[in-house]
Amino acid sequence: MDTLEIKKLFNKHKEISLSHRYITNKHIASLIDNLDSSVTVETIGTSVLGKTIYGLKIGSGEKRILMWSQMHGNESTTTKAIFDLLNSFKEETELSSILKVCTIYIIPILNPDGAEAYTRINANEVDLNRDAQNLSQPESNCLKAVFTRFKPHYCYNLHGQRTIFGVGDSGKSATVSFLAPAQDQECTITPNRKVAMEIISEMNTALQEIIPGQVGVYDDAFNLNCVGDTFQSENTPTILFEAGHFNADYGREFTRELIYLSYVKSLLYISNTDVSGAYYTDYLKIPENKKCFFDIIIRNAKFNNEFLDIAIQYQEVFINEKIEFKPKIEKIEDLNDFYAHNEIDAKGQVVYSETNEVVKIGNENVFVIMNNEKTSLIPK
């Protein structure tokens, strides 16, 4: 199935009730209630605050794939794409072949307390992705119990990444990133990792048609407390998905489509291929992510007798069940080694805050003033 066909499927089956960045149990409960009989719905446990953690099983094939999303409550793009995928399975298409070969188990929101509060951590202020060994949290134990019972052949660890990441030194943002996590301190490229790398290579090939140069991989430094590293070390090929930023897409709606494409491409590949890991080497050519982006850089601003750059990063603020982006000045210095999703040329002018004071680090400004003109810093 080519990328154009997948795009058509996405446009047809996109779940329109889910949008932007704030996705909670409240948003998905009715969707789960309306799933057809092809999906088995389970309550696999409850969160710290007693919220339901759902498990969804679809397909009847022998190849078992476990997917979990919103382990970090504020990383919801992959969850939206899960429901787009489930919608696609409701009618007979080329994707139907996946369900004859594979059984897919999905935990759509592992951290419902964090999702509701729009935080990375759970209600006990624990990062579930650092709790794979201690298993100190009910959400961690839910995931581990499903892993043990379901015995997956593949794991999809679904996350979202900040706007700060670029693809190496390319000057392009990392819109989608992957990782085949290490399973030992030496980061050995084991047969198990090669399988994950081969699947990532297939997804990368498809994504390059749409976002050339905007796919990255994470540093594979080993940490057994991370879930992906733990499952990989238990010899289950595990893939980390990271939904990142595309130009002006702060609601992550275009990235959602790219994640959907990645799901479809990888699931078709698994269902149609005996994935041995023999074709892993293209993975090694994907550039590594680098923290080299700001949301805005104002270039060539005058400070006394110097010309410096002003770096602005959006703070994601949760207000009245909506996410607002508050611009905050992070750096004032020479930023020639950094990039921005939006660059503004001050042309040697002094840059003033909303209170008509020269801007300084820590300022939170909706707009700045240059040459007596206001320039908005809020994303459109």
UniProtKB/TrEMBL annotation:
This is Peptidase M14. GO terms for molecular function: metallocarboxypeptidase activity; zinc ion binding. PROSITE patterns: PEPTIDASE_M14 (PS52035). Keywords: Hydrolase, Metalloprotease, Protease, Zinc. Pfam families: Peptidase_M14. One of its GO terms (biological process) is proteolysis. PANTHER family: PROTEASE FAMILY M14 CARBOXYPEPTIDASE A,B (PTHR11705), SLL0236 PROTEIN (PTHR11705:SF143). Residues 14-258 form the Peptidase M14 domain. Gene3D superfamilies: Zn peptidases. The keyword Transmembrane helix does not apply. It comes from the Bacteria. GO terms for cellular component: extracellular space. The active site is at E234 (proton donor/acceptor). InterPro entries: Peptidase_M14. Belongs to the peptidase M14 family. Its cofactor is Zn(2+).
